[in-house]
Amino acid sequence: MMLNKSIFAISGSLRAGSSNHKILTYIGGLMPAGISYHIYDELATIPPFDPGLDNDTPPEAIIRLREAIAKADAVIICTPEYAYGIPGQLKNALDWTVSSGSFSGKPTALVTASTGGENAHAALLKVLGAIDCDVIEGGTLLISYIRSKMDSEGNITDLQTATALRSLADKVLKAIAQ
Length: 178
What we know:
alpha/beta; 5 helices; 21% strand; globular
């Protein structure tokens, strides 16, 4: 049993009730007892990245985000694709982590769940490399046409998707068990 391990989950969607938030909730339900699992709900509070403010006293929202990432044993990001790319607010938040090194060496999993998602998935993998994440082997998942694979309550109705999410959760757990 893994005790005192924590996973920090970030949804790239700001929309209440988004498919991405529901997926993160679903993954949280797969976690065993003893794992602290927190879905970040302050993405909308992150100010636009400003290198002039990225100093010893950045905005409070940035301090909280960096600390949450640094304290977590692993991070899971679940995001849609907007206009063939990474949602702006998610990219903005990731930009704020560059100088802090919060993600450096951090075991990180990525789920892209959208209508298509291929472009955001590829772009985000590049960003995760640039901020020195330790992308978990087998810890990436692209779920196209997500709305046809879940019901309105967030239950995964597609067996292949449910199996893939379970596998991703298991890989995250394995990464933090070491």
